[in-house]
Amino acid sequence: MEFVKFKELEERITKILQEKVVLKTRSQELEELLKNKDRELEEANKKLKGLNEERETVRTKVDSLLDLLQDI
Length: 72
Prior knowledge:
Elements: H1 2-70
């Protein structure tokens, strides 16, 4: 009788340890995905910043050209 309880306890502990390994692996996968998404977001933000700067440059040039046209 006592050995049966120990066997059940051992099986439960083994199952918990296996689940822990699976969860740890999944956690590492998710952390890597998060790092990749962070890098992608950083790249997108840099590109957006560059586009905004380019837009401002174009806007300044257009304003300058409009000012020249007003003088005509």
